[in-house]
Amino acid sequence: MTNIILCGCNGKMGHVVVESVSANDNCQIVCGVDAFGENDYSFPTYKDFSDIKEAADVVIDFSNPASLNSLLDYLLDKKIPAIICTTGYSPEQVEKIKSASKEVAVFYSGNMSLGVNLLIELAKQATKVLGNDFDIEIIEKHHNQKVDAPSGTALMIADGICEELEKEPQYVYDRHAYRRKRSKNEIGIHAIRGGTIVGEHDVIFAGHDEVVTISHQSQSKELFATGAVNAAIFIKGKPAGMYNMSQMLADKLK
């Protein structure tokens, strides 16, 4: 049995994770942490990590970048791993996560969907074949309540593509300030916010007289919660280090 602390339990994703855990016989939530305090869950909820009394095997974090310092302090103090699903971190915060992974296991992913991670692998393969001759653009669409832009997933896709390019490209997020034609050494990343779109990502390879598009659509938040819960079970007992969806998938295929 994997005992979980759920950080951000009162948020939209927190509620979905609770439902996902309740349907899984291999794990349970022992307590939650949320700045908005108590709720009607069957487990206790605390406003701060320092108030936690329960012992746990792993923390699942679907909260806010502002909570990162207290989360990392708790992980390092208790020597337990975490599944960090929050997006919108600054480069400095990402470095803090990497630093913490030297002492505890950290599963860090901007997207917990199996399909999205497959899209990234397909985009990397396409880049090997098309990258030098095709222009690459990424379009991401999310609901109108999402705060960060571009999405963590869009950046994951771009970073994956970069691994396959001979020369590191420039990420271009907004073209209205540029009065020049598109350079060859760039990846355009565009964010759309509207309605209740759960998440859509398109990777466009635009060449001479042809366009190749790789797409993924998320139909509900449940797939992200399921991925996070599976990652929590996977990372229990793992040594310190950074882990991701590709490693978990490889482990399942053994």
Range of helix content? 25-40%
Distance between the termini: 22 Å
The proportion of residues in beta strands is: 25-35%
Got a strand count? 12
Tell the overall outline: elongated
> Which structural class do the helices and strands define?
alpha/beta
Mean pLDDT: 91
What is the assembly state of the chains in this entry? single chain
Give the secondary structure arrangement, pairings included:
Elements: E1 2-7, H1 12-22, E2 27-33, E3 45-46, E4 58-61, H2 68-78, E5 82-84, H3 91-100, E6 105-108, H4 114-130, E7 135-142, H5 152-162, E8 170-172, E9 186-193, E10 199-207, E11 210-218, H6 222-235, E12 241-243, H7 245-252
Parallel strand pairs: 1-2, 1-4, 2-3, 4-5, 5-6, 6-12, 7-9, 8-9
Antiparallel strand pairs: 7-10, 10-11
Helix pairs in contact: 1-6, 2-3, 4-5
Plain-language structure description:
- 32% of the residues lie in helices and 26% in strands.
- It has 7 helices and 12 strands.
- A 7-stranded parallel sheet has the order 3-2-1-4-5-6-12, with helices on both faces. It has a 5-stranded mixed sheet with strand order 8-9-7-10-11, with helices on one face.
- Strand 1, helix 1 (12-22) and strand 2 (27-33) form a beta-alpha-beta unit.
- Helix 2 (68-78) packs parallel to helix 3 and helix 4 (114-130) runs parallel beside helix 5 (152-162).
- The radius of gyration is 19 Å and the shape is elongated.
In short:
This protein is α/β, with parallel strands linked by helices and 254 residues long.
